[in-house]
Amino acid sequence: MLKKSFGLLMSACLYVFFACSDEDVAGVTEQENAIAFEVDTPNSYDLWSFEAYRINTGTDDAGNWFSYDNTEKGQRARVVLPAKTDSVLTDEDMAAVIDSCGGLCGTVEFDDSSDSASAGIGFTLGKENSTLDVSAWNGLCVTYESELAMKMKLKQGLNGDETANDDRFVEFPKVARFSTHCAKWDEFSKGAAKKLRAVLFEFMGGSKKAGSFNIKGIGSYKDIVRQQSEPPRSSSSVESSSSSNKKTCLWNGTKGMEFVNTGFTGDNAGLWYSYDDGEARGMSVIHWPKSIESPNDAGFAKVLSDAYGSITGTAELEKGSSEKAYAGIGFIMAEDTIEGRLLPRAVDIRDWGGLCVTYSSSEKMGLLLGKEDDDVLRAQLEPSQSLVGKCIAWNEFENISMNASTSNDELAKEISVVRFLFESDSSSESVDFSIAAVSTYAPEGVCNDK
């Protein structure tokens, strides 16, 4: 696999009122500000998801993301984003960032451990710095992971005063795995959302001098509540609800996605790759319907899905001197860099519950999950000439690990790769296939988001 590299560029301070202004927080204590409450992660977002470049405000040329930093008494903080060139993120900037990590991701760096240093990201609501009435949203819900807690702040324009600020904020906790937290407008001053200019997510300094974050989706509280199986907890509760087994679309070929949204870290997390029996002296190969210099070049999945709505190819299986002919494609869950080498990292995907795949194949196709070089779980996808969806729960996989007594759910704690395999005992065989979508397990069916 070839590493998809992006230079990390320091983001400049956005010199507008909602970023670099001094804030007077006198009389506002930490206890007066609310803590965001956790809900089940939704299946869709009405405002923004990682496939989009701008917030859906309902207004053309609005909803732009930006980064900013605040300085106080010489302390410095900055947000470093992949392929970032300026404070305001252009569509090209967003495309590069999202391609690198499947979300809006970056690292917040602090020059010292001062609590007063802060930096963050945000988005505008109106066109050309105008305000927007978003009170009908009832609040915001954010799906994210972060090594730092972040404060959601609202920047308003009241009575013609462009620099008017609301000192209240809602704190979103640091979370090691993607989860969804919500804040209602009720936690801010009355009418705060009626003339809203921007929303900020601010990361604070302290004992930790750097921390990474990744935001996957933003929805209105009103829309997210509609998707909940149970009513969300009150914002006065600081407890977290348990994780949900609701279906999550990990990869959809109709959306031209380059990376599988595994929810884990690394520049190559979710990167598709191909493999064959060459090291075993076989002669198998995968032929693509569209010219690609190398099937392992970063972006090959996007090239194919842009053209065909799926990863489409033909596996030409030739045994050569190998005992068995095989070839296939797969994706890595996460990435580590060890002694300069980029290696797949094993992660815990138990809460996925299993996998759903939308595919077609002229012959049987194996679905394997592995840790490093060892496959531990296997299922079989039957031939289908047209696209068909198949969902397989963890307990329906075959345990092919070295320890047959280990439960499938336990094996799913350490998975580094997911592979689709074509193999044959005959000397020569051809298999036409397409992978159109991959999602976490859900009884109601496969990912079919358009």
Written description of the protein model:
This protein folds into 2 domains: about 10-225, Galactose-binding lectin (Jelly Rolls, Sandwich), CATH 2.60.120; about 250-440, Galactose-binding lectin (Jelly Rolls), CATH 2.60.120.430. The protein has 5 helices and 28 strands. The chain has helices at about 15-20, 90-100, 220-225, 300-310, 410, and strands at about 10, 35, 35-40, 50, 65-70, 75-80, 105-110, 120-125, 140-145, 150-155, 165-170, 175-185, 195-205, 210-220, 250, 270-275, 285, 310-320, 325-330, 335-340, 340-345, 355-360, 365-370, 375-380, 385-395, 400, 415-425, 430-440. Strands 1, 3, 4, 6, 7, 9, 12 and 14 form an 8-stranded antiparallel β-sheet that branches. It has a 6-stranded mixed β-sheet with strand order 2-11-10-13-8-5.
Shape estimate: elongated
- Give the total of domains: 2
Mean pLDDT: 79
Work out the radius of gyration. Answer: 24 Å
CATH homolog superfamily of the largest domain: Galactose-binding lectin
- Sheet with most strands: 8 strands, antiparallel
CATH topology of the largest domain: Jelly Rolls
Structural class based on helices, strands and sheet pairing: mainly beta
Helix content: under 10%
Q: CATH top level of the largest domain?
A: Mainly Beta
End-to-end C-alpha gap: 29 Å
How many distinct beta strands? 28
Strand content: 35-45%
Low-confidence stretches: 1-31, 158-164, 233-246
CATH architecture of the largest domain: Sandwich
**What is the count of DSSP helices, taking H or I runs of 4+ residues?**
5
